[in-house]
Amino acid sequence: MSLGIWLGSLEQGLLWGAMVLGVYITFRVLDYPDLTVDGAFTLGAAVAAHYILLGGNPWVAVVIALFSGAAAGLITGLLHTGLKVAPLLSGILTMIALYSINLRIMGQANLSLLRVKTIFNQVLNIPQLDTFGPVILGLLVTLVVVSLLYLFLQTELGMSVRATGNNEQMIRSLGVNTSTMKLVGLATGNALVALSGGLVAQYQGFADIGMGIGMIVAGLASVIIGEALVGNQTLIRAIIAAIVGSIVYRAVISLVLQLGLPATDLKLLTSLIVVVALSFPLVRQRLGLRSLRLRSEQNAEASQREQNLSSRRG
Amino acid sequence: MLKLVNVNKIFHPGGVNEKVALKEVTLQVQPGEVVTIIGSNGAGKSTLLNVVAGVYGVEGGKVILDNQEISHYPEHFRAAWIGRVFQDPLQGTAASMTLEENLTLALRRGHPRRLRWGITSAERRLFKQNLALLGLGLEERLAARVGLLSGGQRQALTVLMATIATPKLLLLDEHTAALDPRTAATVMDLTEKIIAQHRLTTLMVTHNLEQALRAGSRTIMMHEGKIILDLHGSERERTTVAQLLNMFERASGNSLVNDRVLLS
User: Distance, in angstroms, between A145 CA and closest chain B CA?
Assistant: First the structure.
């Protein structure tokens, strides 16, 4: 594979990285199966594209995308905490509603950004940096997002959000309103997802109504791959795992595309990756138990032999 | 300090599963009093604690803490004044967070959670001092995840967490019942030490009649949602476990069939 393809998956992994972090926040930190993600990603792209086409600054567009995602997350959260809708359904309802809202924002199913100023064609104009421009930009954005998220999760508020996902009864008995913490977590997670959508739209040069479909599964696949490769023993490790997982996932995707798999089969492949990854601990447990049993049998035999020896000596 | 006035608690009111868990319960607890609560399964002991903590609302009556009616405050709001330890050692701590993070969350009980840095170095020193008092060597493991600790260690930590921001009222719901006898004794000693140190007003549910008479200064017995016995002072001192069993049988009008109470 050529350098271009590796560079491409690195770029994509970094730009989609914020989305993966969003999924990490809702699914792992908050333990909330939030399906808003599919809608929030497109929402970020739609809002950013629309704002840029109105002549707005592409960086401001990214920030507006971020806040639009936070609003979407808040709606999901209010459906759950206020109206007691089940977590899964609350996300689905917002996601479906966002489909119409995204079409309203874009006015059509696809908005092209090819002839307007984006954050990417700005860096591409820098001489000598042009090939690596998107990667450097992606790295910078990822660095900022990762650092801010890491700091946030260690504040009083961030710790309370983590504890809410970990042990709701305990943190309520310590005086925290868990409904508020769920709102904070869902808003943060979907803000990151929409931020990613805003970046990706500018990177691809278009926003499309279908670009968020299956985003949640891609995000989950990345989170799981990252956890398997990097681990999640500490907070910083889990955050870095999400980014690494995102890059590896994009690399796998471009690899199989190179091998000739039609792009339309990607969603199937993504689902399979998640299924395999989810079944992995079970398979490992079965295998691990077997090896443990073998070892204990060997140990038992060895001690038996020792006993025989000593009794003979005695 | 704590006053319950004619408190009623009914689960599933009006339905086929209607269950009256508390019937016109009235109880007055003096500041610094340590009350042990005994009774068979389903007597309403845990419900009583949960009604005070705000896990359940009440169908009638009032819960008053420190001259303030708290019956209509939500659980997290009342938590500002109430420290709690649960029966299950896993319930009182966040497994995937570190010891110091758990303690920080506990130290902020009753304060709004802001975008402020979580743990200061002064707090870390405070945690080390307090953990050293437990005598479990936990003061060296501030950055370890709580999930790595044993059940007994986690329960000891929970007792510390419930009291590190001194509460007005401490609720212990059979907090040593899930531990092995030796660990249970350690956690109980620790609990009594902390209660004495801060002169905490305490309600403690227990299945252990011997413990119920030995710990604290007052013992109440519950049956079918009512307080049927209230022992304190010299009367309580003279009472033996056998007598307590007798009293239970007399008061409730039937023999005690709960072997968990008999055996403990």
Answer: 16
